[in-house]
Design a protein that fits this description.
By secondary structure, this protein is an all-alpha fold. It is about 75% helix and about 0% strand. It is built from 8 helices and no strands.
Amino acid sequence: MSNWRIGSINGALLAAYFIPVWGAISYNIMFAPVHALYEQPNISAALFVSDHLNMAGTNLVRVAWLLALGRFAALAFFVVFLALLCWPSTRKNGACDEALGIALAIGSLISFACMVMASQVGETGALRLHATELLLMLGTAIVLVFDRPAQKTAAASDALQHPQFADHR
């Protein structure tokens, strides 16, 4: 248990939330795009696109599928992060943090855009949902920035104590 960092645990908990929730939302959008777009997690995007951008019909379906595609992309990187987290060597040296960082970047962008759209159309429930998701992802990103993997400093200090010269045998 000594090679678990707080960033790894935080990322795993975040992935445990986003994979089923965003997976179900994206799955619903794939098979019933207009109906699923007018549900609570997507209502802000639907109202903003239909009211402010004057889109309807086929273009609304395309926007719904793009939203689902963005969420599936974030989910794919969360899954890759969880897969890399299973190996202790990648978890210890922080190699799995790149996949989590990409998932956080995509997810934060989607949540921020939906939050701005919710504030424009006056949907307070959707605004709270997207603001909470955004704060979850930004908090994990901050933990990742400050929770760096342990570096091997013993080898560097040993090389400084015993200099190796060209004629030293």
